[in-house]
Amino acid sequence: MPVSPIVKISNLDKFFGRLHVLKNISLEVPERQVICLIGRSGSGKSTLLRCINFLEEPSRGKIEVDGIQVDAEGKGKEQRKLIHDVRLKTGMVFQEFNLFPHMSVLENVIEGPVTVKGMDRKHAIELAEQNLDSVGMLFKKDEYPLRLSGGQKQRVAIARALTMEPRVMLFDEPTSALDPELIGEVLNVMKKVATEGMTMIVVTHEMGFARDVADRVIVMSDGELIEDANPDELFSNPKDPRTQALIDRYRSGEQ
To answer: What is the pLDDT of residue 180?
Structure first.
């Protein structure tokens, strides 16, 4: 019996002025799948991710998350309500950690559930502490971001997104701002989140992570999806020469 997709993107276009950044993108993501989006800088990966939760407004097409469908050309109060509902279903982890510097780790993590979802503060704290423990950061719950390493900040950011109880997690190059020795700790947390059954869409340059964790690796080039395959197939036998060139660059240590 086929699994219905939890994320469905249909005929999506995005323009920045005259620049056609995303070109007729269609994509389905079944529940509990981990998708890694790879491609050269400027290929449209982050824009696609940001369109899913409407941090960027698509120009055309439809986006559906957990049964909530939004037409890019919709307007008005109903459209704003649909976008709000989609955002409640999606957790987002950015390149930069975007923690509030004047709030402790715990306060950062409970801010969204309490203010956006109206969650009871006591319940939010319990959930936040569970998620901080899960990412190995409970011992820092009373610290402020200034006193954390980059890897620790990103783990807090993941706990913060999880505490919103999303149905889908979106990661936008979550290790690109980290020193090399801190990347592993964040990737290990992401692997743990994946093994716990979270649907994940990850924009990444970490080919090892894509090979080890992804159910599917999707390659983007010039605003289009050019290849979509399981990691073993894609890395061993890419169909598109642009994918082969990308893999060769990474294997030679270039970005």
So the answer is: 87
61 sits in the region (left: phi over 0; alpha: psi -120 to 50; else beta) called left
> Which of 198, 180, 142, 181 shows the shortest CA–CA distance to 29?
198
Residue 211 corresponds to which tokens in the numbers above? Answer: 């090979």
pLDDT of 158 above 60: yes
Query: Model pTM?
Result: 0.94
Helices (H), the chain: 45-52, 76-89, 105-115, 121-134, 150-163, 180-195, 207-213, 231-236, 241-251
Contacts of 47 (CB under 8 A, 6+ apart): 14, 21, 22, 56
pLDDT greater than 70 at residue 168: yes
Amino acid at 140: K
Tell me which residue of 95, 119, 125 sits closest to 107, measured CA to CA.
125
